[in-house]
Amino acid sequence: MNALSFSHAVHFVHDLEAVRTQLQHFGLKMETTEKESLPGTQSVITEFGLSHIQFLSITEKEAASKSFLGKEALQFLPVKQILGHLVIETSDLDGLRAQLLKKGHDLTLISGANEAEPLYTISGTLGGLAYPLIRKSSFPKNEAGHHALKEIHIRVDNPEIALYNWADLFNLQVIHNTLFLGDVALKFTKGSSNRLHALVFDTFSDTISQTEFRIGEGFYRFR
Fold it and tell me: Which residues form the Glyoxalase-like domain (predicted)?
């Protein structure tokens, strides 16, 4: 059985320093480390316990257009700061590829040794909703911190169709209209954006408990 887990989300942002300031305003005491960036971009990784968010901004348009994530970011920035991608990981990349091929899809490498990390796309979309990016598990997870990602909300035109399409594609069980990547719930809700909408965290911090804020068009909820 090919176990899948949440790796990280990619959030396209216009100003990384403004994001830093906003996170500090809400009392988030997270370590942030500079990520090896793609050409024409700058990225910061913000750790949330066992998961992380990659905030990516554009520094030079022509150079950024030469990479997959940079090109996608240019379609939205600076006007729309969206949660651009969900990235999931597998310890059995060949097994996942064989599983997808049986369902009419394939994995395509989108970044090589000259880019930040090897990532793969799944061919096709579902009514405009892109499938998750895939990476191979390579490093042990960090120890759990004060915040743990528990829910991922995706807005789609038809939540039921998306739910059962992803369940079939990834061999995931539907439980109360929800899919699970490990202990992270994946929920499809009604909306026209056809992309990631919100990330929901359990927190042990009284400072940020019961707080919601947005960065561009992406929402972060702490409960």
Answer: 6-108
Enter the pTM of the model.
0.90
Nearest alpha carbon to residue 190 among 155, 218, 162, 217? 155
pLDDT by residue (tens digit) across 56-114?
999 999 999 988 999 999 999 999 999 999 999 998 999 999 999 999 999 999 864 44
- Within 13 A of 177's CA, how many CA atoms are on the CB side? 10
Task: Specify the number of domains making up the chain.
Answer: 1
**CATH code of the domain in which 41 resides:** 3.10.180.10
pLDDT digits (tens, 9 = 90+) for 140-154: 555 556 778 999 999
With a CB cutoff of 8 Å and minimum separation 6, the contacts of 160 are 188
Contacts for 133 with CB less than 8 Å, ≥ 6 apart: 10, 85, 86, 87, 88, 110, 119, 120, 121
Beta bridge partners of 150: none
Q: In angstroms, rounded to a whole number, what is the distance separating the alpha carbons of residues 178 and 167?
A: 9
121 DSSP β-pair partners: 108
| Three-state SS annotation for 126-177 | ECCEECCEEEECCCCCCCCCCEEEEEEEEEECCHHHHHHHHHHHHCCCCCCC
What's the pLDDT score for residue 111?
64
Q: Which domain holds residue 97?
A: 4-137+146-222
Give yes or no for a contact between 215 and 44, defined as CB atoms under 8 angstroms apart: no
